[in-house]
Each structure stands twice: as structure tokens, then as C-alpha cells.
């Protein structure tokens, strides 16, 4: 048995609308299959967010809960402290927005974000970005092919200094600002508009995310599991690029 | 609109409806309803004059609760209803052309209404009672926010103080909407899915759930129930009514409690209402068992995480389960909700992942450690089951597809005519 790994699902009761809690399940299982002992923690408003974990996952949600989550995560800066200690973080949709420098609150006014990512999110005055999203990360993440997910948001996210995009948008809107890109990456923190959940749709992306903390990852020997991932991955990519 | 023109519009819609039904390509309400509204824009308000309406809305169990309520009230009223589940303006417009009776004081409409359409349709009809079941994530690509829906319901009740609301007091979002009504009957109908209820609709804080109810630090809390459910007994203001439903599952007892709440407001005898409801054994093809190549298949429809909680209750002893997932427009195009369903509960059964999005389901089942096989064709999956008693669980279009095939209907003809109708009507 290898060392113990702590995975935190951040405020899933507020931010977990689009099945994003699945990301924590996929991370935990892919660690366990590689022999790690995994401690999966659901952090809520009562328990608070621990700062000693290895992986943090935060998902999408509605405007009201999103603003509440931002207020809560600003107190004591648990996510920044954890990142400083070497943790990796994946933030999806509303979770990505509040971890930028500003986002739009339920009153349509800008609010301060946590500031992990150098980005600002504004409200898009056109139609909501809803549909399949395909993002090409290029060579940024070794071994990670094109990413597939589903987006559903009203944001336009402007990347500022120091934060690079996760990849180039092939289909869909993603950040919906300037050059066609999605998400943001700074250090071991990754933000994206893709849910699905994104790690279930893109197991190689999940393994790359794991490698940010545990170093090189061994292949998973559960052939049936990996086959199911492959079938889904290629079906989504082929279907969407065809349409 | 002149009377003669209105009559022509109605006759035209009815002709299309019977055509749709005789071709076996649908229940014959939505498409003719679109035609009707196009030809006769004021149809809903005009055909519903002096027809008091009971509207039933929420994310889950609308069709079943409407069927139960309609049956419960049929002993006392001439009831017009949209029992086929066509619950938007089109379906309701068409249902009004089938209006039963013209006896003042005896006529009543019982309509299931899509949650997003409730304020609009409720304003056009002579709405007397609204029953609110629950509100949770469903088709997020279409209805974007549950909290937004609750706010719209709330202002609708504020503007219409003559409406009595029969509301599920176990669902905070329903309570938030219903408390702005002037008259509310609270029914403890249970809450199947908490994920959308944790965030307080009043203050944004986190609601605390316990066995005795729920409350938020801001003071927003569960109202005391007027109607409660315990096993098969529904207690209405302390009077116990025994329910002996033919429909399976504890959730249907809760649905019948909502129906009894409506009966209570309309002063209908509750014991005879309960007797009438026990005669229902299927609702729009759901719940019933059909024979397929030596298997006895229970047909279940579930389209979101909350609905699945009921399904686990009904699958019961069936050792084989075929789950079929599509992601067409009517299903919601984003099946990521599969990760909010505790599929772990299917461990130990023979499971087939089926439908157009079988691969999404298969990955989910792997992570839930449910051993399964993948067969995209539901009928083939059912045939391959080892057990005699099988549960089939489909989401909206996968359920309809199987039903059409079992009735020998041609699926591609169905979609062709639907596309044609959509093109013609714009
Ligand atoms: Zn509150």
C-alpha cells in the first residue's frame, strides 16, 4: 500500500449542479486503482475546507450558491494555502469563475473573487453558452489529447497576466472572450468550463492532473474500465466534430 | 376571432390529432396543439371560460399525480385533463378541445403543467388550485436554474391571491414559492434528492436537514404538515385514510397524499377518492408489466436524479435491470446528471447499459462498481436478460422509443413526421 492521499470535494452542496461531484469520484478511484489509500472529504460550510489535502475539486452551480461559496472561500484563504503547500486544484464553471479576480453576482454586479486565477468573468449579453465543448490543449499537457465536455454558462472570462488558457476551443464557446480558448492554468490550478464531468470524459486529463502531485502515473490494469472510457471518449469526439 | 374560424381551427387540430394517433406515432396532443395555437392564438383563455382549473407542477411525478388527482375527482366532477403528459401550452390548448361537460359547478380541469410554463398558463386559465410537488435539477440546458423557477412561481402566487396552493413542505424550494400564496395546505410528501435543496433560497446559506424537518440559520424552516404519510396511511388533518394503490412504490403513496390535499380543498369525500385512486395500475405506459419474449418487464421512466430515487424503490426484487439513457432535446442534452444518481444501489443485479448514451452510463456504472454489459438497443438488451422479471428504466425519449417499438410503430416514421410538423409550424 502506498501513502495516503486526501481528496477534497469543495462545497458540493453549493457547487455541484452539473454532476461535477463525479470528478472527485473519478480522481479517488483512479488513485485507489494505483494502490493509494484515498481519503475523500466533502467539505461543507460547517466543516470548513481543510488545507492539508492533495487534490481539490470544485464544481458548477447557480448564481446564489456561487456567491455564497465565494464569500466562504475568501475567509482564511484555505485554497490558496493548500496550493502553496503543493496541492492541485480543478475548478469547473462557477467554481472557476469565483477563483478568478472577479465574477458577476446574482444582483448582476461584479464581486471580488478568490484570485487564484488571473482572470475576470463578465456577464455575456448574448445567449447562454450551452452545448458540447471541445478543447485542444496542444502540447501543454504531455500525453493529453483533445478534451471533451459540456458547457452551460452565461460568462465571458478574460484571462489576465500570468494565467494561460487550458486549450484552444474547437467546438463551443469556452471563455467566450478574445481568441477562442477555454479555462485557465496557473501552477497546479486548472480551471475550465467543461463539465460532463470532465474527468470522467477525459481519463488522460485526469491522470495528468494526478501527476501534478504524485509524479509519474502507472497505467491502470482494469481493462474493462479503460475500455469504457475509450468508447465514451471517441464517441463524443467523433460525434461532436461530425455535427 | 369569429366563432366559425375558431370552430375550423379546433376541427383542424382534432383531425391532425386523430391522424397522429391512428398512425400510432404519438399521443396526439402536442403537434395539433401547436397548430391550434397558431390558428387560434386566444384558444387557452377562451376555451377555459367558466372551467375552474387544478394545476399540478414540479420536476417529478407530475403525470402520475395528475392521473391520481383526475381519478380521485372524477366521482364528483366532469374532469378535463391532459393525461398523456403534454404539459406545455400546446398540450393544454389541445386538451381544452376535449372539454368534458358544461354544467356549472360540476366542470373542472386537472392539468399537469411544465414547471417553466406554470405562471403563463396559470394566468390564462381560471386557476383555483395549484399543487406543487418538488423542484430539482432536470434538463439544465433548458430550465437553467431551479431557484429562478421558484422565484417565478412565488411572484405568480403574489399576483393571484385567490389561488389555493397544495404544497410539499419537505422541499425548501417549493415552500419558498408557496409561502407567498394567501392559502396553503402543506403536505409532507417527502424529498428524494437533497442536492438542489441545501442552498437556502432566502439567504443563500446552507439548510440543515434532520429527521424532524429542515431549517436555516436565517429562520426559514419547514412548515408544519397538514397532511402526512406513514406507510400506506395518509393522515389528513389527523384523519387516517388507508391507501391500497395498485401503483408500486412508497413515492406513489406520497403522490396520492397530494391528490388527497386537492380533494380536501374541493371538499370531496376522501374515502371514496382513495378508493378511486386504487384502481389505477398504469400511467401513460409506466409502471405496468409487459411480456417480451418470455420476460415480464416492468416499464419505468426516470429522467433525473430525483426520479431515480423512486426507481430504486420500485425495481425491488427484479434481478435484471435494463437502463436506457438518451440525450435528445426532450431529455436534456447533457447527461452529466448520471453522476448524481447513486447507481451503487444496483450492485449485485444483472445490469445492461443501453440507449444512445450507453457509454456515458457504462463509465458511470464502472465507477459505481456495478458489473454490467453494454447493449445500445434496449429491446436486444431486454431479450438478453437472464431473469424472468426485469425492470426497464428509460429516460424520456428512450422510454418512448421502446414503447413505440413494442406497439409495432415505426420509429423513423415517427421522427420524420415530427420533423415535418416542426418545419411546417416553424
Ligand atoms: Zn436562510
Would you kindly provide a written description of the structure presented here, covering whatever features stand out?
The complex is a heterodimer of chains A (about 240) and B (about 425). Chain A has helices at about 20-30, 65-75, 80-85, 95-100, 200, 205-215, 225-240; strands spanning about 5-10, 35-45, 55-60, 90, 100-105, 110, 120-125, 130-135, 145-155, 155-160, 165-170, 180, 185, 190. Chain A contains 7 helices and 14 strands. In chain A, strand 5 (about 100-105) and strand 6 (about 110) form a beta hairpin. Chain A has one domain (about 5-240): Rossmann fold, CATH 3.40.50. Chain B is α/β, with parallel strands linked by helices. Chain B has helices at about 5-20, 30-40, 45, 60-75, 90-95, 120-125, 145-160, 170-180, 250-265, 270-275, 305-315, 360-365, 380-385, 395-405, 410-425, and strands at about 50-55, 80, 105-110, 125-130, 165-170, 185, 210, 215, 225-230, 235, 240, 290, 295-300, 320-325, 350-355, 370-375, 390-395. In chain B, the strands form 4 sheets. In chain B, strands 2-3-1-4-5-6 form a 6-stranded parallel beta sheet, sandwiched between helices. In chain B, helix 4 (about 60-75) crosses helix 9 (about 250-265). Classes of the chains: A alpha/beta (about 240), B alpha/beta (about 425). At the A-B interface, helix 1, helix 2 and helix 7 of A face helix 7 and helix 12 of B. The complex binds zinc ion (ZN). Zinc ion binds next to loops of chain B.
Amino acid at each position: 500500500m502506498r501513502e495516503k492521499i486526501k481528496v477534497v470535494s469543495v462545497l458540493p452542496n453549493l457547487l455541484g449542479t452539473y454532476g461535477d461531484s463525479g470528478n472527485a469520484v473519478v480522481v479517488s478511484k483512479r488513485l485507489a486503482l494505483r494502490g493509494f489509500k484515498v481519503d475523500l472529504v466533502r467539505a461543507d460550510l460547517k466543516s470548513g475546507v481543510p488545507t492539508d489535502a492533495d487534490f481539490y475539486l470544485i464544481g458548477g452551480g447557480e448564481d446564489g450558491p456561487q456567491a455564497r461559496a465565494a464569500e466562504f472561500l475568501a475567509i482564511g484563504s484555505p485554497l490558496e494555502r493548500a496550493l502553496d503547500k503543493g496541492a492541485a486544484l480543478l475548478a469547473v464553471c462557477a467554481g472557476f469563475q469565483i477563483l478568478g479576480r472577479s465574477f458577476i453576482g446574482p444582483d448582476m454586479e461584479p464581486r471580488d473573487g478568490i484570485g487564484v486565477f488571473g482572470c475576470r468573468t463578465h456577464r455575456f449579453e448574448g445567449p447562454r453558452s450551452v452545448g458540447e465543448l471541445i478543447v485542444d490543449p496542444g502540447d501543454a499537457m504531455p500525453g493529453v489529447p483533445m478534451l471533451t465536455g459540456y458547457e452551460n454558462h452565461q460568462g465571458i472570462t478574460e484571462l489576465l497576466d500570468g494565467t494561460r488558457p487550458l486549450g484552444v476551443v474547437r467546438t463551443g464557446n469556452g471563455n467566450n472572450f478574445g481568441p477562442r480558448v477555454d479555462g485557465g492554468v496557473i501552477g497546479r490550478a486548472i480551471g475550465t468550463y467543461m463539465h460532463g464531468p470532465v474527468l470522467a470524459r477525459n481519463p488522460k486529463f485526469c491522470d495528468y492532473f494526478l501527476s501534478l502531485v504524485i509524479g509519474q502515473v502507472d497505467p491502470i490494469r482494469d481493462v474493462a474500465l479503460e475500455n469504457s472510457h475509450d468508447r465514451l471518449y471517441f464517441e463524443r469526439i467523433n460525434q461532436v466534430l461530425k455535427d | 376571432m369569429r366563432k366559425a374560424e375558431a370552430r375550423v381551427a379546433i376541427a383542424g387540430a382534432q383531425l391532425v390529432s386523430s391522424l397522429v394517433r391512428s398512425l400510432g406515432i404519438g399521443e396526439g396532443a402536442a403537434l395539433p396543439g401547436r397548430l391550434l395555437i397558431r390558428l387560434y392564438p386566444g384558444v387557452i383563455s377562451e376555451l377555459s371560460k367558466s372551467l375552474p382549473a387544478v394545476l399540478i407542477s414540479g420536476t417529478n411525478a407530475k403525470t402520475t399525480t395528475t392521473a391520481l388527482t383526475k381519478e380521485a375527482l372524477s366521482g364528483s366532477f366532469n374532469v378535463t385533463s391532459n393525461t398523456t403528459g403534454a404539459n406545455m401550452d400546446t398540450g393544454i390548448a389541445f386538451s381544452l378541445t376535449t372539454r368534458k361537460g358544461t354544467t356549472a359547478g360540476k366542470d373542472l380541469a386537472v392539468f399537469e403543467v411544465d414547471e417553466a410554463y406554470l405562471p403563463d398558463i396559470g394566468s390564462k386559465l381560471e386557476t383555483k388550485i395549484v399543487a406543487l410537488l418538488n423542484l430539482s435539477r432536470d434538463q439544465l440546458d433548458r430550465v437553467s436554474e431551479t431557484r429562478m423557477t421558484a422565484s417565478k412561481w412565488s411572484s405568480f402566487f403574489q399576483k393571484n391571491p385567490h389561488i389555493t396552493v397544495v404544497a410539499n413542505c419537505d422541499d425548501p424550494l417549493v415552500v419558498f414559492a408557496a409561502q407567498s400564496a394567501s392559502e396553503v395546505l402543506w403536505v409532507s410528501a417527502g424529498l428524494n434528492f437533497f442536492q438542489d435543496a441545501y442552498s437556502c433560497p432566502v439567504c443563500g446559506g446552507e439548510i440543515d436537514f434532520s429527521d424532524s424537518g429542515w431549517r436555516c440559520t436565517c429562520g426559514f424552516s419547514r412548515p408544519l404538515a397538514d397532511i402526512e404519510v406513514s406507510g400506506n396511511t395518509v393522515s389528513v388533518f389527523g384523519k387516517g385514510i388507508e391507501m391500497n394503490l395498485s401503483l408500486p412504490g412508497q413515492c406513489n403513496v406520497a403522490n396520492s397524499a397530494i391528490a388527497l390535499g386537492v380533494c380536501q380543498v374541493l371538499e370531496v369525500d376522501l374515502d371514496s377518492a382513495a378508493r378511486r385512486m386504487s384502481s389505477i395500475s398504469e400511467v401513460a405506459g409506466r409502471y405496468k408489466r409487459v411480456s417480451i419474449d418470455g420476460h415480464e418487464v416492468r416499464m419505468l421512466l426516470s429522467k433525473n436524479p430525483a426520479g431515480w430515487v423512486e426507481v430504486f424503490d420500485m425495481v425491488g426484487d427484479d434481478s435484471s435491470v435494463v437502463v436506457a439513457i438518451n440525450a435528445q432535446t426532450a431529455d436534456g442534452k447533457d447527461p452529466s446528471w448520471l453522476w448524481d444518481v447513486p447507481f451503487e444501489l444496483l450492485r449485485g443485479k444483472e445490469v445492461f447499459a443501453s440507449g444512445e448514451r450507453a457509454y456515458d452510463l457504462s463509465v458511470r456504472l464502472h465507477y459505481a462498481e456495478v458489473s454490467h454489459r453494454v447493449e445500445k438497443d434496449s429491446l436486444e438488451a431486454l431479450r438478453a436478460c437472464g431473469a424472468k422479471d426485469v425492470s426497464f428504466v428509460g429516460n424520456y425519449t428512450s422510454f418512448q422509443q421502446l414503447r413505440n417499438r413494442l406497439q409495432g410503430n415505426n420509429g423513423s416514421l415517427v421522427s420524420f413526421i415530427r420533423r415535418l410538423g416542426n418545419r411546417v409550424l416553424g
